[in-house]
Every structure is written in C-alpha cells, then in structure tokens.
C-alpha cells in the first residue's frame, strides 16, 4: 500500500509579500453543486471559497446585479474540416454533462446565458490543426456557455483566446469519450479593466487523456475554476498553468481533481510571477481521492516567483484521501524571490544583472510553455513574458 506524501512548505517573507499554506484536508470538497442560482447565498467574503476574492471588483457577477448587454463578447470559431460547430438553445442535452456549478457566479452564468456553443469532434477523428475559439470583449457584460465534446478515440487541440474588455462569467464543458485525447489552451490576455470568472469542467472517459493549459496575463480580476472528474478507469489528466500578475491585478486559480473511479492519474503544475504594488495571485489546489478510487496516482505543485515588493501570493494545496490503496499522492508549494545562486552564476560569466534576471524568469516559465505544442501560441506567450519582464526591470 502506497502512503500519501504530504509536503509542508509554508513561507512568509519580509513585508508579507507572500504567504503559502498547506493542508491534508481539502476544505472545498463539501461545496454545494447546483444549476439553480437560488441555491447559493450571496457571498460576503467570509466564506472559505470567497475569502481571497475582492468581491467589490466582480462588477455584480456575484450578487445578481450584473445585467447582460448586447456589447458583451464576440465569439468566432475556426475549425478544421470534419468538426461540427453549432449554436444551440438552453435545452440541449449536451449542456451541463461535464459538471455542475459549484459557486454562485457559475450558477448565475448557467442561468443567464441565452445560446451555447457546442463543438463536436466525431469518434476516431484525429485533427492535425487546432480548433480556435476567439472570445473578444466589446466593453459590456456577458454570460456564456461552451461545450467541447470528443467522440471515442478522437484527438484534438483547442485554443480559447480571450482578448478585449468585458465583464464575463462563463462555463466551459469538456467531454472526452473513451480513448480520446484533448489538449486545451485557454489564454486570458484581457485588457486592463476586464473581469473574467469561469468554471471549466472536464469529464474524462475510460483510458482518455486530458491536458489543460491555463495562461493568465491580463484583466483587472480573473478567477478560474478548472475541475476534473473521470467517467471510467484509466483516465489521465494534466493541468498546467502560467500566470504573470502585475500591479493591482487579482488572478485566482482554484483547481479540483476528483478521483472518483479506480486507476486514474492526475498531475497539476502551476507557475506564477508577480510584480508591482498590490499584485495578488491565489492558487488553490484540491485533490480528492474517493474510497472507490483505488490505484490512483496524483501530484500537484505550485511555484511562485516574486519579482518586486508589494506583491502577495496565497498558495494552498489540499489533499483528501479516502482509501489507502493508491499508487501515490503528493503536493508541494513554494514562493520566493530570485535565486541568488543562479544570478551569481550568470553574472560571473559576464551577463549583466538585468539580463540575468530575464534569463532566470524565462527559464522558470519556458518548460511549461514548450509543452503546449502549438508553435504560434508558444511564440506569442514567450514574447508576452519578455514584454512583462521589460516592465519589471525598467
């Protein structure tokens, strides 16, 4: 019998620029789930799931006062031949299959959208080009729902690109048939005033593989909730994330992997960099291994690099295990400044300090970016990181 590996790594640096905590009990496991917004009380900020979020910056998404406008977001889809792209009504049976809203904003989004987008990749279809979903904010408020469904043994890459200015609450469902392989890249490159709250639900079929990349740069407030559950044994999920939090921004990523069936795997790696006064990043990683999920193998890690004074990180990895018959389970969290030894090594070889700092941060992120597998997206993200670094050393 394998034992769970709990790795406590809490840190508080001078000036309270960073805080990390860990727990062996995932506090969000008991969160209610409902499609009805009335089942969720209006949050006040004292609730566990809302205590890190500045509610006053949600523009009314949490209390029902945010009303959809005609100039919310524009969505364009580019799909290879063979992919079915539809716009459907609320009564379509495919909506909501992957998961149920677990907070008031997600329920509000589900209750308020008028039409949903559904993208279907037929069984045994292997795409050689990505499906691209462009979500562009046009200055208003919007509620949205998107479904991506892969048939058995289908393979696809989906890129969801968020740009412009909007107040958006949106749910995204990923449904993977048996043996399917799906890679999703969700880029949040919003303008400075945008607000984006979303729940991403993935239902992973037997022997299917789900790989997610969540990349967050822009926006005034971004709060995303990726969730994974399994529909059969042998499923694998990899959740990767990259965020660069600037002065005044609030970026929050709250993960849940529910190992609800036997012999599945999951791995979560999120990395962030912060700079500027009141830059605030939050990472909550929850993994639940249910009693029936024997043979589970899981690990989650969050690393943060604080580039300037005045920034703050809250990093909370959680692990709840209901069976001892597992392959392995562990978590880790680390937050700190530049590694002085790395800087010294580079500077001792004639590299100026500012260039050395850029190289350290570039290397910190490059390993994740290079796993995306979409060349133009990788190039764009590395260029965006370089642009952010120019600001940090200016």
Automatic annotation (TrEMBL):
A GO biological-process term: iron-sulfur cluster assembly
Q: Which GO terms describe its cellular component?
A: iron-sulfur cluster assembly complex
Residues forming the SUF system FeS cluster assembly SufBD core domain are 137-364
Lineage, top-rank taxon, reads Bacteria
InterPro entries assigned: Fe-S_cluster_assembly_SufBD (IPR055346), SUF_FeS_clus_asmbl_SufBD_core (IPR000825), SUF_FeS_clus_asmbl_SufBD_sf (IPR037284), SUF_FeS_clus_asmbl_SufD (IPR011542)
NCBIfam families in alphabetical order:
sufD
Give the record's family classification. Belongs to the iron-sulfur cluster assembly SufBD family.
Protein name as it appears in the record:
SUF system FeS cluster assembly SufBD core domain-containing protein
- State the taxonomy lineage: Bacteria, Bacillati, Actinomycetota, Actinomycetes, Kitasatosporales
